[in-house]
Amino acid sequence: MGRAWKFGDNISTDLIAAGRYYHLRSNLPELAKHTLEDARADFAPNAKAGDFVVGGRNFGKGSSREHAPVVIKICGARAVLAKSFARIFYRNCINIGLPAVVVDTDRIDEGDDLELDLTGGKIVDRTKGITLPFPPLPPTMARILEEGGLVAYIEKHGDLVLA
Amino acid sequence: MSGQTLVERILSDRTGKRVAAGDIVITPVDLAYVQDGTGPLTFRQMEKMNLTKAANPSRSIVFIDHASPPPRRELAADHVYLREFAAKTGMVLSDIGGGVCHQVAFEWYVRPGDVAIGADSHTVMGGAMGAFASGMGSTDVAVALGLGKTWLRVPETMRLDVGGRFSKGVYSKDLILKVIGDIKTDGATYMAMEWGGAAIESMPMTERMVLSNMAVEAGGKCGPIASDQETKRYLREHRREAEWKEVRPDADAEYTQRIEVSATDLEPMVARPPQEDNVVPVTDASVKGLKIHQVYVGSCTNARFEDIQVFCSLMKGEKVAAGTRLIVTPASRESYEKSLKSGLLEVLIDAGATISSPGCGACPGVHGGVPGDGENVLSTTNRNYVGRMGNPAAFTYLASPATAAATAMYGVITDPREVA
Questions:
Q1: Which of A21, A95, B318, B361 allows an S-S link to B298, with CB 3.0 to 4.6 Å?
Q2: pLDDT exceeds cutoff 90 at B25
Q3: Which of A154, A156, A162 should one mutate to test binding to chain B, selecting the residue with the greatest count of B CBs within 10 A?
Q4: What is the pLDDT of residue B1?
């Protein structure tokens, strides 16, 4: 269970991990204090473990910086939910073991109490008493996520193999 | 069986089996690279996975370009780590002053038919070489460097056919801005944006590169362009003619989407903040005459010798308007040197420009031209998000080098066709 933090469409990786904090990229806990600062300055100081980042269309567009999903994860996010994702950000989320879920986020409001059922393919909005289904991840990505991300996946299999 | 798109052909060739859009494949990686913002995390991930060697050291490159030279101690420390890791693994190091990763990679490393993976989203620029070039995150690139391969889904292709002729003062930057304005920043998500048609065939390589470069601004996975005689000419110019081969899509390739554009109808375009699809012609009342505090010519998108040449052809003998600053950051050492030897740097200095060393410069907001609160920047770069250039209280307008020159002269956004 966790709280929904709502964001709009087109949240860029510059909004998630701003270029002016470039020098903190090798100090991730410090960089994480500025997560999404230019979109919602109240997020990073108040986010709790298990909370959800909830975006609209094209979440995570822009640069390839993996630091963007990493700092969201450090802030405690259980998952990122959005109507659609930019390609590199989506892949980065899965690679670091942070679920990125494509779901109709219009039905979720700020502060709603959410629950993620990854294997069941649904988000439960406990505030509204509704269930939002989502399609399963492509098999390769599902396996990487299931095994805790790409580092764990490579460690386990000793090679890059398709699930 | 229908024919193959450019990306299907490249990936079929590299994987040794006929692939089609939607297939999941593991492909060899012919070129992999990182830069100083993504490299430290990439190498820490390699260490975690116990990938202590590079699969192909001479085709693995470490670029120090984003914080070049480093403005802070923390970034200097990252550079030390990158240099040590490169030395230990035998990877190629492109140190400060060499230039932007994508530009240097294009000049000296990307080959037609290659699969090129970089830990930077504008890796897509390599598509102009007739390669599959795509940006990925640090962990994916760590695997590509260490194991020499990556997995990916063969993308569907959006084919963009460009006919007609470009009018004076109109460039490929205007074309890509127009297309992004039309299809929006997620219009090509997960897709290959394949460019072709008469106007692309007659387009010089340095202009094609802009189209491939900004594929990611429409969400594209790659932006391939067929390798042809112009590709061969470019490689010859870089003493790499032996690396040329023709790479073309089949005439009966199956495209998910087709877009036709007439270059003849294009005008100079400007992307207004806060994102690249907020595009209007330079004549639009919302931009024409808008006060600009800083003009920036830089980045992998539009800071090559040829861009500086266009800029200087308008600026020659003129001064930057009072109250406006001009910063020029050549994209690479090659562009810097050519600009010097052909007298362009003198034109810029006479005009009152600040010239900085090759690298990413002010584009990603690390250093080298962070605008002040409330200031407007007219930039030849690729992104204009809130905070992109290092200040969330400033505003970035994207345009071509020609529009940048006209704007620098008058201190307000100006149509280059009125100046030429």
A1: B361
A2: yes
A3: A154
A4: 75
Give this prediction's pTM: 0.98
Q: Does B273 touch chain A (CB under 8 A)?
A: no
**β-bridge pairing B31-35 and B60-63:** parallel
List pLDDT tens digits, range B396-408. Answer: 999 999 999 999 9
Q: Report the share of chain B in percent with pLDDT over 70.
A: 100
Q: Domain boundary residue among B232, B261, B290?
A: B261
Distance from CA of B313 to the nearest CA of A (A): 32
Whether residue A13 contacts residue A65, with contact meaning beta carbons closer than 8 Å, is answered with: yes
**Enclosing domain of residue B146:** 10-261
Please tell me the CATH superfamily of domain A2-157, with its number: Aconitase, domain 4 (3.20.19.10)
Q: Which CATH number do you get for residue B61?
A: 3.30.499.10
Distance between CA A128 and CA A131 in Å, rounded?
A: 9
Contact criterion met (CB < 8 Å) for A150 and B120: no
- Kindly state whether A23 is in contact with chain B, defined as any CB-CB distance less than 8 angstroms: yes
Do B180 and B193 touch, CB atoms closer than 8 A? Answer: no
Q: Where are the beta strands (DSSP E) in B263-402?
A: 269-271, 279-281, 294-297, 325-328, 354-355, 376-379, 395-398
pLDDT tens string B165-181 = 999 999 999 999 999 99
Backbone angles phi, psi at B301, to 5 degrees: -80, -50
Is A150's Cβ below 8 Å from some Cβ in B? yes
> Would you say B293 and B325 are in contact if contact means Cβ atoms under 8 Å apart?
yes
| Sequence-distant (≥ 6) Cβ neighbours of residue B97 within 8 angstroms | B68, B69, B333, B357, B358, B359
Could you tell me the CA-to-CA distances from B295 to A11, B4, B274, B329, B395 in Å, in that order?
26, 43, 17, 11, 12
ipTM tops the 0.90 cut = yes
Neighbours of B147 (CB within 10 A): 20
Residue of A27, A63, A140 lying closest to B151 (CB–CB)? A140
Q: Are strands B31-35 and B24-28 parallel, antiparallel or unpaired?
A: unpaired
Distance, in angstroms, between B314 CA and closest chain A CA? 32
Total beta-carbon pairs less than 8 A apart between chain A and chain B: 148
